[in-house]
């Protein structure tokens, strides 16, 4: 069983046999990037009442932030936060760092290519192998220090990139710990209840991955897909998006709902491990990224999880005779391996027999496309 995050995929290599595209030179969408969709893939974008719906925007200094977050996790599995303490300067810097990286020539980016059974490096989303068509995006994954790959990208000139990434990781770690206690607090869980949060309750052993996503402007956006529908295999994900919209979440009864970029705000997604920890009370959110004809879009996802060897299972405080545990214990590394093998069936594959009609995993509704 792999014990480190960077080894999570060693038993599930992904070989993607295709030439990387120089997106900027493509004038017509190639067939391999053309997604054919059925009308039911696009459920009505507004609520049945005709009212516009959008995920809650929560000021972290609001006196009722805890309750607002609990409600957002239960009903949406996603929300935006403001007043989160991440300086605007750092958000601007991470955006420039991402822009510099993705605007390098294709052959240069390939020098930092992700290996088939590895996690860090440049490449297409790992979930690509589950879809017959390619996604109109490229990504760069960082686990721990960015140094090794940054050196391959900029042999003499990587210090600034590394400094920004390291500061971003440090600030995100603090924010993720804060959000964890707000989310857990809203479930009635207190500091002493989570042993792996460590003696200071700062989740010092938590693991993370940083994913930079680039979505170039696309000649035929209605037939392309930036990032296919998926849930994150995390406790929570903190997502920065530039000023171009594209992120959508699936909301029951409303269909795909766009999360509009708000300057300075960050998007928080509930991941599969929080789904398990909360025994399904906070369901992980199915989301995707669409593309557009005019604007380049950049997003930076901070994927946050427990120490890789800690077993995550439904919290005992949430279990009683009418609420039996719905999931078996699983480590983050093991779950990532399961996801690499079963993708949208990963959550059901760790589910214990239970009242399936009471709670359906969001992944069971995953949209068939391609
Ligand atoms: C920790 C991780 C979650 C992730 C796989 C990874 O090892 C690093 C990349 C992450 C990411 C980002 C884009 C979407 C996603 C589904 C993918 O293909 O790579 C997620 C993975 C995940 O949450 O399962
Ligand atoms: O680009 C986005 O908005 C979504 C990115 C995402 O879902 C991810 O990196 O896991
Ligand atoms: Fe995601």
TrEMBL record:
<comment type="pathway">
    <text>Hormone biosynthesis.</text>
</comment>
<dbReference type="InterPro" id="IPR044861">
    <property type="entry name" value="IPNS-like_FE2OG_OXY"/>
</dbReference>
<dbReference type="GO" id="GO:0009686">
    <property type="term" value="P:gibberellin biosynthetic process"/>
</dbReference>
<dbReference type="InterPro" id="IPR050231">
    <property type="entry name" value="Iron_ascorbate_oxido_reductase"/>
</dbReference>
<comment type="similarity">
    <text>Belongs to the iron/ascorbate-dependent oxidoreductase family. GA3OX subfamily.</text>
</comment>
<dbReference type="InterPro" id="IPR026992">
    <property type="entry name" value="DIOX_N"/>
</dbReference>
<dbReference type="GO" id="GO:0046872">
    <property type="term" value="F:metal ion binding"/>
</dbReference>
<feature type="domain" description="Fe2OG dioxygenase">
    <location>
        <begin position="202"/>
        <end position="306"/>
    </location>
</feature>
<protein>
    <recommendedName>
        <fullName>gibberellin 3beta-dioxygenase</fullName>
        <ecNumber>1.14.11.15</ecNumber>
    </recommendedName>
</protein>
<dbReference type="InterPro" id="IPR005123">
    <property type="entry name" value="Oxoglu/Fe-dep_dioxygenase_dom"/>
</dbReference>
<keyword id="KW-0408">Iron</keyword>
<dbReference type="GO" id="GO:0016707">
    <property type="term" value="F:gibberellin 3-beta-dioxygenase activity"/>
</dbReference>
<keyword id="KW-0223">Dioxygenase</keyword>
<keyword id="KW-0479">Metal-binding</keyword>
<comment type="pathway">
    <text>Plant hormone biosynthesis; gibberellin biosynthesis.</text>
</comment>
<dbReference type="Pfam" id="PF03171">
    <property type="entry name" value="2OG-FeII_Oxy"/>
</dbReference>
<dbReference type="InterPro" id="IPR027443">
    <property type="entry name" value="IPNS-like_sf"/>
</dbReference>
<dbReference type="Pfam" id="PF14226">
    <property type="entry name" value="DIOX_N"/>
</dbReference>
<keyword id="KW-0560">Oxidoreductase</keyword>
